[in-house]
């Protein structure tokens, strides 16, 4: 057996030598060189073929010693090079991957075509850096770039199609967690057992240790430009690789393109078109936002000067208090200071900054355990391997952020350098780098350099540690010149970038002149341009360089601190006469005292800002006195960020202030037939299912259309959409959430351009009776297809919902008695806290039903953490009902304690324990108390738009159970539009699930002047996503509202059955 393995290795070696010689014969024709792979450490059961495909020929060409000093300092990864001619001619056809042939001993799938790799030996190729796996037959078709070159391809540039280039966009990271059945977009490995982050906007996943290598290509959700010509503009797809939804099919070949075995296939983040990696290039670059384009607000119609992710203090923030950071000159290279400096006397800022530093250290310490590089080393290595901890300059040493690699104990210094470069995703000539022992001293000269003759096993013995810590360094040279890449920014020029030769004495002004000449803009005035330095890390840091700066000395000094940061730096031109955004940052300030004057609200906010010494707002916009909220505007965006960090910790009258930046929607940028969707999500509804729904829906539409009701309620969203002539609303929650939004719409909607938008419901509550009547279902279940739900909203029909006012008039004697009891008990609550008027949407009940609801409400108030599922909630109702059996309650013989008039006529009430007044045909989670009786000609069918209410009697708890199970219906008492009830004693009552004990008195239920427009799910069959040819066409527009209204009028039968 050993002889066989040895012969195989010899054959592989001979093949490698043969291919190496053949490649030198044809190196000018094919542009790709095959070399004998550097020996790597593998397990005894795994043998690697010694063939490696290299991205650039000059990458592996031997460098003469005499020329080493000239070339060493000129190669700064992607930014600095001394051989632009060779680079331009010898770009790898394998998208920067460093591929070598490998024997796979478990089922492995190609990341390009998703087919399995078949064979016994050398089934396919794998990239040494990003773990990209491919068939040999797919080598020439690879279009997925390696992480070493992906950052250079962020900028969209299609000059022939009039597509405006875009700058990199940073991701919005979630809290770290564990994500099952997902793959890291950096190292392409599964995330199952590793701590990972997820972008909340574009489904980009990354291990905690891979955050340094992420590509900042997130979707840009707010990109309004007043100077943009919309008629000539083309909105492009934003493709994201892997982690596709279940049952995804390729829109081109109609075959399944989803796989759970590897990171493969593509999905557009805007239109949700899915395709194979080899198919998506066949699509047009223009995106039409897909089947729900009428509901989605395109990013070019939204302006958001200060995104909420910038100020919320997530892991992307680098400055104090989570504020965006500006970059100091590179020769200092310290931690970037905040954009708006704060004084040392502000404890809130210091606490926030301390919290952010603690979070970073905690994530980095945890992530070092789950490092995929270390896992890879353990898989590839054996017990004789050597673990090494690699640091990227002194910056990573100070942050204690390292990457662990595994090499053979007899690995040479060059092989260890190559392993360190792979761990840091650096694709470059290893002869230009070396390793040194870690040192806290800033001086690079005092570090001990690892000798070329030392091997990995000696390092552990010499340093006296099990896992030696090493720093990857760049070779010290005395080169005085090099090349940098200069990008055109947002200018449209015929090339993607140009290379500019610089020396220690070349200033920014001269660089601008040379770049304009190479871009073909000789007639432009160089004084009208500036050079911008972009560092694309977790966040995008931008610094406008001084015209007298000399970048070359700064580059030489900066590389000592971080090689990776050097590779993440780019330079681009920017016109100095570009119009800065004139849109003011709008901030919602809420949770203030209600019913004050507008001047008083302005004074309160001004006083809170002046106390902290912060800049004041420019103006006060709309003031909502009934909600204690105001909209303030800041022309200076930095001042808005500073004010946010002051007000977010402020309190007024012992209540915390609610803050939220509000987007501005530009109507002139929307299509005439568009009806944008405003989404309200109650994240606490239905056992906190709203959190999952919020994450999913934020990726299906523009995130600035989605509002969390726990942050300011419905008011911020209604204000943002107040100028739109027509839009729709999706409420994700229970019946109580629907009532909450409708009530707020009643209060502020009359001041909006569209005062009565159509409303759809995604049921998240326990009962969800209104959503059942409107055919939206009884409750959302985890895994439900929400994209099909949004498509159903496009095809839904408008119906009317009657709304009713319930007025409670308590007897004066009862009020006096209640006041006496309140005063004797020194209670602060008086009769002014008793509800006296409600708007009813679903039903109103008196007696046994309200008694059970009140018991459930009190149990939930006592222990709210236990009420986190529908099953538990219904179980509580069942237990409360069983306790009522056999006991005499206050609702016994209810007919003796009340008197009822319907439309001015008294009605006779039989022996009952409860009474329901219904507006819809669903109650108690799907039951129909009114029922359907074709032989009963006395009463009409129960409908929600007929202007009538239905009175139903309940005989007891057993009767309730029979109605719930569908065995019986309620006792039909009456049907009318005006109901008056006299209560002789205190009774439990409830309105739309809100219960309380009502004092004796009079109850009046009358028709409200406000009628809601609801959306009812159509019976039309919804097409499957991404399988129809019309998906990417411009046809299939939704019918106009006028035609839809005619259809609703013809089909006015509501069919209120569950």
TrEMBL record:
EC identifiers of the protein: 2.7.1.107
Coiled-coil blocks: none
Domain DAGKc: 672-810
Ranges of biased composition (kind: Polar residues): 1029-1039
Superkingdom classification of source: Eukaryota
Domain Ras-associating: 384-477, 480-578
InterPro entries recorded: ATP-NAD_kinase_N, C1-like_sf, DAG/PE-bd, DGK, DGKtheta_RBD, Diacylglycerol_kin_accessory, Diacylglycerol_kinase_cat_dom, NAD/diacylglycerol_kinase_sf
Keyword field: ATP-binding, Kinase, Membrane, Metal-binding, Nucleotide-binding, Repeat, Transferase, Zinc, Zinc-finger
Name this protein carries in UniProt: Diacylglycerol kinase
Any one GO cellular component localisation term in the record: membrane
Amino-acid biosynthesis among keywords: no
Keyword Metal-binding belongs to the record: yes
A GO MF term: ATP binding
Chemical reaction(s) catalysed: a 1,2-diacyl-sn-glycerol + ATP = a 1,2-diacyl-sn-glycero-3-phosphate + ADP + H(+)
Domain Phorbol-ester/DAG-type: 96-146, 170-218, 236-287
Cellular localization per UniProt: Membrane
Species whose genome carries this gene: Acanthaster planci
Region (Disordered): 317-346, 1021-1058
Pfam families per UniProt: C1_1 (PF00130), DAGK_acc (PF00609), DAGK_cat (PF00781), RA (PF00788), RBD_DGKtheta (PF24099)
Gene giving rise to this polypeptide: LOC110987650
Bias type Basic and acidic residues, positions: 1040-1058
């Amino acid at each position: 057996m050993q002889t066989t393995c040895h012969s195989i290795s010899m054959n592989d070696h001979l093949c490698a030598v043969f291919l190496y010689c053949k490649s030198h014969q044809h190196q000018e024709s094919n542009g790709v060189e095959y070399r004998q792979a550097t020996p790597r450490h593998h397990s005894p059961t795994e043998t690697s073929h010694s063939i490696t495909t290299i991205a650039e020929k000059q990458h592996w060409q031997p460098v003469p010693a005499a020329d080493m000093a000239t070339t060493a300092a000129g190669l700064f990864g992607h930014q600095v090079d001394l051989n632009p001619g060779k680079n331009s001619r010898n770009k790898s056809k394998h998208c920067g991957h460093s591929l070598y042939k490998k024997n796979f001993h478990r089922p492995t799938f190609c990341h390009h075509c998703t087919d399995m790799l078949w064979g016994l030996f050398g089934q396919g190729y794998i990239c040494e850096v990003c773990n990209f796996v491919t068939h040999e037959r797919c080598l020439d078709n690879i279009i997925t770039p390696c992480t070493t070159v992906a950052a250079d391809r962020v900028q969209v540039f299609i000059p022939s199609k009039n597509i405006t280039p875009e700058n990199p966009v940073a991701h919005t990271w979630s809290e770290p967690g564990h994500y099952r059945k997902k793959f890291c977009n950096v190292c392409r490995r599964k995330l199952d057992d590793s701590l990972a982050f997820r972008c909340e906007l574009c489904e980009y996943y990354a291990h905690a240790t891979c955050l340094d290598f992420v590509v900042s290509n997130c979707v840009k959700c707010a990109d309004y430009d007043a100077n943009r010509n919309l008629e000539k503009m083309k909105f492009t797809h934003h493709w994201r690789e892997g982690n596709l939804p279940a049952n995804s099919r390729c829109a081109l070949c109609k075959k399944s393109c989803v796989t759970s075995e590897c990171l493969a296939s593509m999905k557009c983040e805007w239109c949700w078109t899915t395709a194979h990696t080899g198919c998506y290039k066949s699509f047009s670059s223009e995106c039409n936002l897909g089947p729900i384009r009428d509901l989605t607000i395109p990013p070019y119609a939204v302006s958001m000067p200060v995104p909420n992710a910038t100020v919320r203090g997530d892991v992307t923030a680098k400055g104090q208090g989570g504020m965006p950071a500006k970059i100091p000159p590179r020769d200092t290279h310290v931690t970037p200071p905040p954009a708006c400096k704060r004084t040392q006397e502000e404890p809130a800022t210091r606490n926030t900054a301390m919290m952010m530093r603690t979070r970073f250290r905690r994530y980095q310490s945890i992530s070092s355990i789950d490092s995929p590089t270390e896992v890879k080393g353990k898989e590839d290595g054996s017990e004789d391997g050597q673990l090494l901890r690699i640091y990227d300059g002194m910056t990573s040493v100070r942050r204690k952020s390292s990457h662990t690699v595994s090499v053979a104990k007899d690995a040479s210094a060059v092989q260890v350098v190559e392993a360190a470069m792979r761990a840091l995703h650096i694709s470059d000539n290893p002869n230009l780098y070396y390793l040194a022992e870690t040192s806290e001293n800033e001086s690079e000269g005092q570090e001990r350099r690892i000798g070329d003759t030392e091997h990995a096993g000696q390092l552990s013995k010499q340093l006296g540690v099990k896992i030696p810590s090493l720093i990857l360094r760049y070779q010290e040279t005395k080169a005085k010149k090099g090349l940098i890449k200069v990008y055109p920014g947002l200018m449209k020029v015929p090339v993607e970038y140009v290379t500019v030769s610089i020396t220690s004495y070349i200033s920014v002004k001269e660089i601008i002149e040379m770049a304009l000449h190479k871009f073909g803009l000789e007639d432009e005035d160089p004084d009208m341009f500036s050079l911008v330095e972009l560092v694309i890390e977790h966040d995008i840091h931008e610094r406008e360089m001084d015209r007298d700066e000399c970048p070359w000395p700064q580059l030489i000094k900066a590389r000592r601190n971080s090689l990776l940061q050097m590779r993440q730096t780019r330079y681009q031109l920017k016109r100095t006469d570009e119009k800065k955004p004139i849109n003011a940052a709008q901030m919602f300030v809420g949770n203030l005292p209600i019913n004050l004057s507008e001047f008083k609200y302005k004074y309160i906010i001004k006083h809170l800002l002046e106390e902290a010494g912060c800049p004041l707002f420019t103006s006060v916009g709309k003031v909502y006195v009934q909600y204690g909220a105001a909209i303030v505007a800041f022309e200076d965006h930095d001042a808005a960020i500073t004010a946010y960090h002051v007000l977010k910790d402020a309190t007024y009258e012992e209540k915390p202030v609610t803050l939220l930046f509000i987007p501005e929607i530009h109507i002139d940028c929307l299509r005439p037939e568009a009806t944008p969707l405003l989404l309200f999500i109650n994240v606490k509804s239905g056992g906190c299912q709203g959190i999952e729904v919020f994450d999913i829906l934020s990726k299906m539409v523009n995130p600035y259309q989605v509002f969390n009701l726990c942050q300011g309620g419905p008011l911020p969203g209604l204000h943002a959409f107040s100028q739109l002539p027509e839009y729709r609303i999706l409420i994700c929650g229970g019946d109580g959430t629907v009532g909450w939004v409708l009530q707020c719409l009643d209060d502020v909607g009359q001041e909006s351009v569209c005062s009565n938008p159509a409303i759809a419901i995604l049921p998240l509550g326990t009962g969800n009776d209104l959503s059942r009547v409107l055919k939206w279902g009884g409750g959302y279940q985890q895994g439900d297809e929400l994209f099909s739900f949004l498509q159903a909203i496009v095809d839904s029909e408008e119906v009317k919902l009657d709304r009713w006012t319930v007025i409670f008039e308590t007897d004066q004697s009862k009020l006096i008695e209640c006041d006496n009891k309140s005063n004797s008990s020194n209670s602060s609550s008086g009769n002014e806290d008793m509800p006296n008027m409600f708007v009813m949407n679903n039903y109103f009940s008196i007696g046994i039903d309200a008694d059970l609801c009140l018991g459930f409400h009190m149990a939930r108030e006592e222990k709210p953490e236990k009420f986190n599922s529908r099953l538990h909630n219904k179980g509580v109702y069942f237990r409360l009902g069983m306790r009522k059996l056999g006991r005499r309650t206050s609702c016994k013989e209810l007919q003796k304690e009340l008197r009822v008039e319907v439309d001015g006529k008294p009605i006779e009430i039989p022996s009952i324990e409860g009474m329901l007044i219904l507006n819809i045909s669903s109650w108690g989670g799907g039951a129909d108390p009114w029922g359907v009786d074709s032989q009963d000609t006395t009463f009409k069918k129960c409908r929600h738009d007929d202007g009538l209410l239905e009175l139903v009697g309940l005989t007891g708890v057993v009767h309730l159970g029979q109605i719930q199970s569908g065995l019986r219906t309620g006792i039909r008492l009456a049907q009318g539009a005006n109901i008056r009830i006299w209560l002789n004693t205190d009774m439990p009552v409830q309105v739309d699930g809100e219960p309380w004990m009502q004092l004796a008195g009079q109850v009046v239920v009358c028709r409200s002047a406000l009628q809601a427009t609801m959306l009812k799910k159509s019976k039309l069959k919804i097409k499957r996503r991404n399988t129809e040819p019309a998906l990417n066409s411009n046809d299939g527009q939704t019918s106009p509202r006028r035609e839809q209204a005619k259809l609703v009028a013809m089909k006015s039968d509501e069919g209120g059955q569950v």
